[in-house]
Write a structure and sequence with these properties.
Blueprint: H1 3-14, H2 18-37, E1 42-44, E2 48-55, E3 58-61, E4 68-71, E5 74-81, H3 83-89
Antiparallel strand pairs: 1-2, 2-5, 3-4
Helix pairs in contact: 1-2
Length: 91
């Protein structure tokens, strides 16, 4: 399912216009992204959680040349599925 299919499903389920459904979906995605930018953890009980994992700087190697390269510190988003979602998928 992609974003447009999600908007269509919401439109049909809630009997609202396509533009209203698109606004709701966009608000949901923006709220999650904004919270993650601030380093907050998002938990949707029974479905999933989103969190940001921070990595320190380290020395890596260029695979082509073998030269040492300094990898800058970074923050990456992670997704963890909830127990109920795992059980629904694994039928």
């Amino acid at each position: 399912m992609n974003k447009l299919e999600l908007i269509s499903a919401l439109k049909n389920s809630a009997e609202i216009s396509k533009s209203e459904a698109a606004a709701v979906v966009q608000l949901f995605f923006d709220s999650i992204a904004d919270s993650m930018v601030q380093g907050e953890r998002i938990e949707i009980r029974g479905l999933c959680s989103f969190y940001v994992k921070e990595y320190k700087s380290y020395v890596g190697r260029n695979p082509k040349t073998g030269d040492k390269v300094i990898i800058e510190p970074k923050r990456l988003p992670f997704f963890k599925s909830g127990k109920e979602l795992k059980e629904r998928v694994d039928l």
